[in-house]
Amino acid sequence: MIRKTFESDIQQVKDEILLLGSMVEHAIIASVEALKKRDIKAAEKIIAEDKEINKKRFGIENQLMILIATQQPMAHDLRLLASSMEIISELERMGDYAKGIANINVRMGDEKLLKPLIDIPRMAQKGVDMLHRSLTAFVNEDVETANAIPVEDDEVDALYNQIYRELMIFIIEDPKNIERANWLLWVAHNLERFADRVTNICERTIFIATGELGEIKSSDDEFWKNQKH
Amino acid sequence: MDNHNENQKSKEQGKAAMNKMEIKDLAVFYGKFRAVTDIQMDIQTNKITAIIGPSGCGKSTLLRSFNRMNDLTPSARVEGQILLDGENINVPGVDVVDVRRRIGMVFQRPNPFPKSIYDNVAYGPRLYGVRRKNDLDEIVEKSLKQAALWEEVKDKLHQSGLSISGGQQQRLCIARALAVEPEVILMDEPASALDPISTLKIEELMQELKKEYSIVIVTHNMQQAARVSDYTAMMMLSKEGERSGTVIEFDDTKAIFTRPKDKRTEDYVTGRFG
Fold first, then answer.
1. Residue A217 confidence (pLDDT)
2. A36 band by pLDDT with thresholds 50, 70 and 90
3. pLDDT band at A4 (very low <50, low <70, confident <90, very high)
4. Which residue, A45, A77, A173, A213, shows the most beta carbons closer than 10 Å to its own?
């Protein structure tokens, strides 16, 4: 016996999660692109579109609730639906980082960028690439990939570290740079957090596939420790 | 060395004390047909153990062997051991009436005797020689209270046991089982003939009863097993093409319903069996 209706409902939820993921990917790339071009109209559009991301998340949450109430999921099904709930919440917050970057862009008004953006788009690209693969791993329940992706967070952290130092030099050189440096630091910080959340998605994928719920060892703590020195 | 052995021994005794019953290498036959085979499981004291599995896998047969109810079927016979407090219940010299007093049973359909509510509950104690009215009154009240039925029937104790609702009748049968002060209660689908509210009442009652008794329940309702039990035994036919049932996975209920180890358990609890 196969639970055809339930299986197809689950597939639909997975498709919706991929769709939500692609909306978030688009938002984060677009937010950095708009900042690079200092395109305030584009930034305002991103802020407006964040509402669509939130709406999509609530829609999926409702679908999940209905499935839990009507299908009484057990074992793997239960882990999948409960973890999906967690993943959509991660995605919604990742969307908020894009909105945050767009907000900074709007608040900068006529100010010019302190420096041309090079590493920030790299961070965004890397984060989006990680997110994309983490969602593919989620759909395929690919434990190996889910375990491998969080290690790549080191690259994002290294870029953040580099941006941080660079901006500090600008500040030290001329305190007038403080505000503009701070804006960029916030942007970089959002992107750093964005990539961190990919790790949470990977942890859920491993839980769905194996039933083991735990933290994947990340170098993030190490990174923050190093920041103190 | 002696000291170490002593420690080991007392540890084992401590462990045994937690197990009200131990089932070892059990097989039950009907004539030549091996209905259940190779059963190893412990029934822990003051816990609820559920037995789940598809129809025809031997759940009820296994449950009935726990208090030698299978003795009533002429061709039935068991191999292996069923220990109650460490004593084999299947060896010569064991009083089967005493076994069934210590291990009570509640069936799928409420089956009160066509007697008054009072007499239903007093039936067992009378059989065991309680005669004084005061003693019987006390047992009846205590048992009905334990079965969460007292408040509903205290004013009509001398009405027929068949005059109350199905859910009340099932609780009356539980009271009847409790009246002889058993240690273990076996329940064979105790709520499958009841409406959802009566079912919930039985489930709530089980949580109360486990404080004093050890309970084993056979249920087709997996949600019920998940809700009420501490441990779950998953039964299935032992091999493709064979008709003999066995326990394929026995674990903490939480583990069985969230991360079962056996693929067949996973398929069963997620409704993809067969």
1. 73
2. very high
3. confident
4. A77
Residue B1 lies in a domain: no
Tell which B residues from 192 to 251 touch A, by Cβ distance under 8 Å: 222-223, 226
Q: Do A75 and B273 touch (CB under 8 A)?
A: no
B10 has a pLDDT exceeding 90: no
Residues in chain A with CB shorter than 8 Å from the CB of B257 are 74-75, 78
- Please report the pLDDT score of residue B18 as a whole number: 86
Q: Cα dihedral sign for B208, B214, B220, B224?
A: positive
Residue A188 — very low, low, confident or very high, per pLDDT cuts 50/70/90?
A: very high
Residue range A4-228 forms a domain whose CATH class is mainly alpha
The contacts of residue A201 (CB under 8 Å, 6+ apart) are A87, A90, A91, A131, A134, A135, A138
- Max Cα–Cα distance, chain B, nearest Å: 66
Q: Which ipTM value was assigned to this complex? A: 0.73
> Rounded mean pLDDT of A199-203?
97
Confidence (pTM): 0.82
Beta-carbon separation of A75 and B274 below 8 A: no
Domain count, chain B: 1
Break chain A into its structural domains and give their ranges: 4-228
Q: How many CB pairs under 8 A join A and B?
A: 35
Of B260, B250, B197, B200, whose CA–CA distance to B224 is shortest? B200
Question: So what's the pLDDT on residue A5?
Answer: 87
Q: Are strands B33-44 and B19-30 parallel, antiparallel or unpaired?
A: antiparallel
Residue in A3, A79, A211 closest to B272 by CB: A3
Band of the pLDDT at A15, cuts 50, 70, 90?
very high
Could you say which of A2, A72, A211 has the minimum Cβ distance to residue B272? A2
Q: Are A126 and A60 in contact (CB under 8 A)?
A: no
Provide the pairing of β-strand B48-52 with B231-237.
parallel
Does residue B32 fall inside a structural domain? yes
Q: Are B79 and B245 in contact (CB under 8 A)?
A: no
* List of chain B residues whose C-beta atoms are within 8 Å of the C-beta of residue A73: 270
Q: Residue B91 sits in which domain range?
A: 18-269
CATH number of the CATH domain containing B248: 3.40.50.300
Contact A1 B271 (CB under 8 A): yes
Residue with tokens 């006390």: B138
Contact B270 A76 (CB under 8 A): yes
Structure-derived torsion over alpha carbons of residues B262, B268, B272, B274, reported in degrees to the nearest 10: 90
CA A88 – CA A66 distance, rounded (Å): 16
